[in-house]
Amino acid sequence: MIKAKLNKYYLIILITTSVLFGSCFNPFAPKIDNSTNNQNILSDQKTVEGVFLNFKYAYTFKDTSIYGQLLAEDFVFTYYDYDLGVEISWDRPTDMKTTNGLFQNTQDLTLIWNNIVFEEGDSLFVDVKRSFNLTITFNPNDIINFFGFADLTLSRNSTADVWRIQRWKDLTNP
């Protein structure tokens, strides 16, 4: 009789343990949501507006991997240094390093793309001039607001490809 009760007790423990371990999950490794109703938060870079939306996303979330996907391999950034009185340019690797430094050393970046003031081109090459507002928050006591214009040249090899920024000329005044 005692042996039957012990067997029944062990059986209950075995079933309870199996259920508990079988239903456990690791909150630090949740399951991947493979549902088809999720919308991608990135925009389609096959449109010019998609490039600007992804640019804003990259700055908002300080995401250099998304930012890097916006730039062509032969990308050139140019700005005018008013203190030196000269135009300064750099290549893609320098821009990626500089942008990463900006992303790492700020608490918040708020980029607002305003109206497109000029757009000209075709299905493979387009020049876009657009105004923007950029707020850079280093800390609550160190906030810089910029209002400027970006002159961007976007290109792609075919209409099946995504747009990439080939040239960015910053037209922001100090």
Provide a quick synopsis of the model.
By secondary structure, this protein is an alpha+beta fold.
Whole-number radius of gyration? 26 Å
Largest sheet: 6 strands, mixed
CATH class: Alpha Beta
Pairing-aware structural class of the strands and helices?
A: alpha+beta
Beta content comes to 35-45%
> Low-confidence segments, ≥5 residues, pLDDT <50?
none
Q: If you consult CATH, what is the topology?
A: Nuclear Transport Factor 2, Chain: A
Order of helices and strands: HHHEEHEEEE
Number of domains: 1
Basic shape = globular
Number of helices, where a helix is a run of at least 4 consecutive DSSP H or I residues: 4
Tell me the number of strands.
6
What spatial order of strands do you see in the largest sheet?
2-1-6-5-4-3
Distance between the termini: 92 Å
CATH architecture identity:
Roll
Mean pLDDT across residues: 86
Q: What portion of residues is helical? A: 25-40%
Question: Explain this structure to me?
Answer:
This protein is of the alpha+beta class and 174 residues long. The chain has one domain: Nuclear Transport Factor 2, Chain: A (Roll), CATH 3.10.450.50. The chain has 4 helices and 6 strands, in the order αααββαββββ. The chain has helices at 2-23, 48-60, 64-70, 92-104, and strands spanning 71-81, 86-91, 108-121, 125-139, 142-155, 164-170. A 6-stranded mixed beta sheet has the order 2-1-6-5-4-3. A hairpin with a 4-residue loop joins strand 1 and strand 2 (86-91). Helix 2 runs antiparallel to helix 3 (64-70). The longest helix has 22 residues, at 2-23. The chain is globular and about 90 Å long. It starts with a helix and ends with a strand.
